[in-house]
Amino acid sequence: MQDRFAEKMSDPKARADTRLLGDFTGIYCRGKHRGAVRAPLASDGVVLGVYGRRAPVVCEECAELLVYAEQRRAFCPKDPKPFCSNCDTHCYKPAMREYMRDVMRYAGPRSMFHGYAVQGVRHLIESRNARKAAGAQSAAEHEG
Ligand SMILES: [Zn+2]
To answer: Would you state the torsion angle of the CA atoms of residues 78, 81, 82, 88, taken in this order, to the nearest 10 degrees?
Structure first.
């Protein structure tokens, strides 16, 4: 592991961001890659304890995404760092960017049930609430 990676990953913000990506990717992989062989992630981030006590359980492809995302996050040149989706520096290569976007789109709304409410997915919460309000008029529906 590079010293610089470890140093960058000691930043609580970088750790929190990376952990969130790990959680999201775990949710995505569990839902979308059901047939794949999945195993706890092995990465520099895991070694540094970024994901807490349990590493995200993912398939090989998703593991590759996370290893890539760890590196990108650790070496993000922006300070303060904007949300990746709002950033004008597209540091992800296109395929990975598309992959991560899929992960966010899939796991963002689902992560509400896991107790997350981060700004990055706030627009998803808002649209969900709007749908809920619309649905409440027609049916007595209870969630969560
Ligand atoms: Zn996967």
So the answer is: 20
pLDDT tens for each residue of 8-17:
999 999 999 9
Which backbone phi and psi does 39 adopt, to 5 degrees? -145, 160
CB under 5 Å of ion ligand 1: residues? 29, 33, 59, 62
Q: Is 57 exposed, middle or buried (0-12, 13-18, 19+ CB in 10 A)?
A: middle
Say how many Å lie between the CA of residue 13 and the centre of ligand 1: 25
DSSP track, 55-99 = --EE-HHHHHHHHHHHHHHHT---SSPPPGGG-SS--S-HHHHHH
User: What tens digit of pLDDT does each residue of 123-138 get?
Assistant: 555 556 666 776 665 5
